[in-house]
Amino acid sequence: MKIGILGAGISGLSIARLLSKHFETEVLERHSIAGGIARTREAEGIAYHVTGGHCFNSKYQEVMDFVFGEVLPKKNWHAVTRNAVIRLMGNEVSYPIEYAIKQIHELDQDLAIRVSSDFLGSNDDGNYGNLEDWFRKKFGNTLSDIYFIPYNRKIWNRDPANMSHAWVEGKLPIPDKRSFFKGLISNESDKMPHSSFYYPNSNNQNTFIDSLAEGVNITCNYAVSAIAYNPVTTQWTVNGEKKFDLIISTLPLDRITGLLQDVPGEILGEAAQLKYNKVTTMLWETTGTDRTWTYVPEDGNFFHRYIHIGNFFSPSRAYSITEVVGEKTYQEMVENGRKDAFLKRPIDYHVSEHAYVVFDENYERSTTAVKGYLQEKGIYTLGRFGEWQYYNMDICIKRSMELADEIVAKHNSN
Ligand SMILES: Cc1cc2nc3c(=O)[nH]c(=O)nc-3n(C[C@H](O)[C@H](O)[C@H](O)COP(=O)(O)OP(=O)(O)OC[C@H]3O[C@@H](n4cnc5c(N)ncnc54)[C@H](O)[C@@H]3O)c2cc1C
User: Fold this and answer.
1) Torsion angle of alpha carbons 316, 320, 325, 331, nearest 10°?
2) Which of 11, 341, 372, 380 suits a disulfide with 250, CB 3.0-4.6 Å?
């Protein structure tokens, strides 16, 4: 049996690696190089994460075992302790903000009292009308107003009141009232996911990606433009020439429907409803910081996040990446960066294609319809945009492991 895997990002590479132990596989990638969203580009010798800064960790032991045991041994990674901050009223407070009440108290005593009483008095009844409602019920009104709502408005480029809360559970560190209170009376800080993470010793995430791609049969510079099924041979043909018994697609859901024949108008309509955001980034030489990243909820600042990528490296370097959602010009990035003396010199610039899935009011209906149609046709979909989910790299790997197990079990190979 020959399996065609569309796209050589983290998901395509992971599943190809796992399935090639049992079947013949071929990964088709439109770019000249594998890695997708997670790939970096070297600029002045610095690993520039063109689609935004990435760090790797996972709460799933099987994912860590796969990465350290089969892909890139643990000795080739160094651990980095997260030192993230949020810009608030022109100052910096620690992230996650729920643990920064003492710092907020130093800035504004009344605000700290309001944050605490709202959080402890919030009524989380488990029913949420939208994302704004979810924040208010989880964290109370004051924290929502000073941080969660303005930051999320920036990162999603739309009002959280018009968004679904479906993605958020399990993605954000959510303290309960007990741990919040503990934070008030002790010096305890968070033990949430990503409070530390790993970065390759080469100081470039591409080392991880290249190790993942090692031994995988990839055809690069190959844009998939047509996928057809022949019910007589029960085979798939890609671009009229490559034959496969099974197709796994990591291509964005809103694009794959356009590559198939005779897709009902109703499904094409649902695919057209799927929303995503691009991200524009710029790599800067900076004056230096000991932070790992900075969240910027303030309306007055053009960027939503600074990734201090130089502090992912060992030894540290004074470089950061500024991120803003949407398509922005080089000039806009430079002009806005120049307002912050910390950003010394622009080095490189990039506008991504698909970066963030948007969970709007159509999300549930449109993803269910499109995924259901593809499943009915026998196409497996996988990954951040293949499943249209807010997946990090580790979840892409976990989903690849699960799907590989399912396919191996179903097709009963040796
Ligand atoms: C700003 C930002 C920050 C992030 N930070 C983190 C982080 O800190 N930690 C973390 O773990 N994760 C992070 N992520 C998530 C992580 O990048 C993704 O989960 C992961 O890279 C997705 O991999 P994928 O293979 O599913 O998709 P992709 O990387 O999108 O791969 C899809 C592949 O398909 C190819 N393709 C598309 N169309 C075609 C076609 N027609 N023919 C052939 N090939 C095609 C693309 O070129 C691409 O290589 C971040 C994401 C973003 C956007």
Assistant:
1) -160
2) 11
55 lines ligand 1 (CB under 6 A): yes
pTM exceeds 0.70 for this model: yes
80: alpha, beta or left? (left if phi > 0; alpha if psi -120 to 50): beta
Which residues touch 333 (CB under 8 Å, ≥6 apart)? 280, 282, 322, 324, 346, 349
Q: Minimal CA–CA distance to 205: which of 77, 13, 43? A: 77
Site to substitute for ligand 1 among 154, 393, 400, 402, most atoms within 8 A of C-beta = 393
Ligand 1 atom closest to the Cα of residue 223 is 42
Q: Counting atoms of ligand 1 from 1, which one is nearest the CA of 323?
A: 1
Per-residue exposure over 44-71, b if at least 16 CB sit within 10 Å of its own CB, e if not = eebbbbbbbbbbbbbeeeebbebbeeeb
Q: How far apart (Å, rounded) are the C-alpha atoms in residues 93 and 362?
A: 36
pLDDT in tens, 314-337: 999 999 999 999 999 999 999 999
What pLDDT score does 175 carry?
76
Domain ranges of the chain: 2-37+207-275+358-411, 101-185, 279-351
Location of structure tokens 């964005």 = 252
Superfamily of domain 2-37+207-275+358-411, CATH level 4: FAD/NAD(P)-binding domain (3.50.50.60)
For ligand 1, the distance from its centroid to the CA atom of residue 91, given in whole angstroms, is 33
What is the CATH T-level fold of the domain 101-185, as seen in this structure?
A: protoporphyrinogen ix oxidase, domain 3 (1.10.3110)
- pLDDT of 163 > 60? The answer is yes
Instruction: Please tell me the number of Cα atoms within 13 Å of 96 on its side-chain side.
Output: 23
| End-to-end CA, the chain | 11
The per-residue pLDDT for range 106-136, each reduced to its tens digit, is: 999 999 999 999 999 998 998 999 999 999 9
d(CA 389, CA 166): 10
The CB of 249 under 6 Å from ligand 1? The reply is no
* Ligand 1, atom 49: closest residue by C-alpha: 36
Distance of CA 279 to the CA centre of its chain: 11
13 lines ligand 1 (CB under 6 A): no
Distance from C-alpha of 179 to C-alpha of 341, rounded to nearest angstrom? 37
How does DSSP assign 2-40, residue by residue?
Answer: EEEEE--SHHHHHHHHHHTTTSEEEEE-SSSSS-GGG-E
